[in-house]
Amino acid sequence: MEITSEDYMQYKPLLFSLGYRMLGSVAEAEDVVHETFLKAYQLKGTMIENKKAYLCKILTNRCLDILKSVRMKRMDYVGPWNPEPLLLDQSNDNNPPEILLQREGLSIAYLRLMENLKPDERAVLLLRQVFEFSYQEIASMVEKKESNCRQIFSRAKRKMTRVEEESLSYESNKLIVNRFIEAFQLQDMETLLELVSNNVTLYSDGGGKVTAATRPIISFDRVMALLFGIIKKVPADFRFELKNANQQPAIFIFITGKLHSVISFYINKEKIIDIYMTMNPEKLPCSEKEYSRNGDLK
């Protein structure tokens, strides 16, 4: 059984979805999907009983190799590291269907917390919890015993408990973020205190490419002071829109016709617990003109 062009169209969205969750990068996910199919095409004549599992195995092992090297690179990363926002348009039928079907494991909060997992823990957790493969299939993909995969999954789950109560309701969270924006504009501290946790943490990712806080900012007072300080310095052509990133409402900030940053949120029990401000230009590839023409980037 061989991989065909029809298989490419069928499984590409699934593989991208898995690759993005594993690596937290759109470009890297696209690369590993391409490499996966290239390798599969080269293995003509190989007996394949389950194409889906076969392709996921190739991609998973490639991601595991990358993660080992990426972890070393991120040790030298300047400031907090945020996953690259995956910009989605809910009205766009061209969005990868596997991503739209599965919200779990897609939020910035979830992807960021996965940085605390070892590569094999990340792979087993995603393959089991998000993509619902059997332990037998996972064991074959990561080349470990089923019993080991069960233990790895349990260990990874314990490390991810912080996001288990994350609100994934787009519409409910959109109301909260809109209220946050309005209260921020009015400097309504009473409403902001209602919406934002006293222990809120802001992770500002500039990657050493642009000016950003090199350490997480913790506490309501410090985070608000930072945000109010930033807004006082923005130029006259500053504008923002509320759009869909990672199936959650996010604030897209434009300055001088370019996408300057994306602000995402971790919301739990109707409270903003974390704020993720991604400004690294390598993670924000579109200009305002391109954004307006294409809608949200895929």
Structure write-up:
Pfam families: Sigma70_r2, Sigma70_r4_2. Residues 109-160 form the RNA polymerase sigma factor 70 region 4 type domain. Interacts transiently with the RNA polymerase catalytic core formed by RpoA, RpoB, RpoC and RpoZ (2 alpha, 1 beta, 1 beta' and 1 omega subunit) to form the RNA polymerase holoenzyme that can initiate transcription. It comes from Oceanobacillus piezotolerans. GO terms for molecular function: DNA binding; sigma factor activity. The protein is built from twelve helices and seven strands. The longest helix has 25 residues, at 51-75. With 298 residues, the protein is an alpha+beta fold. The chain is elongated. The chain has helices at residues 5-23, 26-42, 51-75, 97-101, 108-113, 119-130, 135-142, 146-159, 170-186, 189-195, 220-232, 288-294; strands at residues 87-88, 196-205, 217-218, 239-245, 248-255, 258-268, 271-278. 50% of the residues lie in helices and 16% in strands. Residues 287-298 have low confidence and may be disordered. α2 (26-42) packs across α3 (51-75). β5 and β6 form a beta hairpin. It has two domains: 5-76 and 118-159, PhyR, sigma-like (SL) domain (Butyryl-CoA Dehydrogenase, subunit A, domain 3); 170-294, Nuclear Transport Factor 2, Chain: A (Roll). The chain starts with a helix and ends with a helix. It has a seven-stranded mixed β-sheet.
Key attributes of the depicted protein:
298 residues, elongated, 12 helices, alpha+beta, Butyryl-CoA Dehydrogenase, subunit A, domain 3, seven-stranded mixed beta sheet, single chain
